[in-house]
Design brief:
heterodimer; A: about 190 residues; alpha+beta; six-stranded antiparallel sheet; B: about 325 residues; mainly alpha; 2 domains; about 80% helix
Chain lengths: ~190, ~325
Amino acid sequence: MKKFLRENIVLIAGVTLPLLLTVIFFIATQFDKASNEYPLHSVIYTDQPNYNANRSSYQFVVKKDQLHFVYTASDTGQNWKKPRLYVFNPQANTSQEIELPIINESDTKIDIPLPYFASKTISTLLTSPDGYTFKSNYRHNVNILTSLFGGGSKSRNRVILSKGSSNIIIPDAARYNTHFIGWIVGEQGVANGK
Amino acid sequence: MENSNIIESKETALAQITQLAQEFDVSLDEIGARFTQKNNQDKSDKWLSRLLGYLGGAFVFGGLALLISMLWDDLSSVARVIITYGPGLVTFILSIIVLKDPRYDKASTPLFLMSAILLPTGMFVFLHEYAKGDDGQLAAMIVFGILACHFLGAFFPLKRTSLLFFGYLFWNGSIGILMERAGVSGEILGIILGVSIMMVAWSIDQTKHRAIAPFWYFLGSIGLLWSIFDLIEGISPIDILYLPLTIFLMLVSTRIHSRTLLFISTLALLGFLGYYTGEYFADTTGWPIALIIMGFMLISVSAYAVQLGKKIK
């Protein structure tokens, strides 16, 4: 055994080096997770391509702490894709899709509060009250080796809730075209609603 | 007794050849030219048959893929798995069977290649049809991990270079994803995996499987140098450390007798010189002088690389 180890020390080191680093990083990540406070507030986001709060036919607007779904028929004839709306609960680590009103062809203007958020208070500030920010985490440092063996593009583009060194990945969020709408900062009359 | 007969008959043959050559005034060059011509013809015939063989194999492979794609929508989940994983398993078993017969020994490598393509395809289809969730990265890590065990497991008793190559390829595919999932950043992943691959390549280079070592030296050194450059790019004065690193790798290449490593480290050095002059000396008056200095440096580096290359036997 000793002889084998001595003769193949480079091979053994080469094979165990990545494994060792994986273990170190895994422990460090777990330690980091344990020492950081998890986000308290759920985040609302949409995955509409080319979403633009000023130009799109579909908009999500917060009025008096309530989230409204606003539809305005396009003047230019541009056919905007109807967005999907999600709420990510970091405590449960799940995303839930929120049903949006059906739009008929005859409708030219709709502006209704979404019932799901009726009892909730919404904040549109980029940073939540507990200091987390909604971000698209794009890692551009890609080379031939990380492209081949680094887990593909999914590993380089992801949507996260970030605070210092703590990054919470939103698991089901589309890697592109995901846009921040707001935070659920509390139930009506109750602080820290989720 | 048998040996002395062979030597005797060989001597007789040579005596006859000499007698015939003298009789018909045939020179040594003419005999040599005839032998070369014959050898070239044999090689040409082999090359053609090999090309046609590969072409035929490609047609069979392409036809199978086309048939699968045409029938795909009508196939049940079980049929989809069988039609993709099945041929992969069959070619893998076939490649082991042909190893037993020296006449078909050379067919094992293309068969292993086919199984290395079809087996992961079949496993991904299996996961797609039966596994819940949409974590493609996790699926890839599991598939490549299983295949690494599969190919390396077969390598240890069979000792085939192609099995080692594919086994190590799948191993890196799996370990790279594992590192990424453990939160290792791209640059660190590239550096560690690069060093690891180069160490394993050196170990492979010491064995009879050394034919695949240059490929792994190439991949490992590119990954390592690229990742280090990503890490230190634009950070003054740390970025100058890249220069001794590339020179060190050039010297290592002579030590381990790898022209591939010498080539990559020389390219990295030349690239770094370009980056460094562009980054720090590219003002309007200094730029032409910087270009001249860089030109001299490039000439020096290339001359040094040639010198080092001569040392590699």
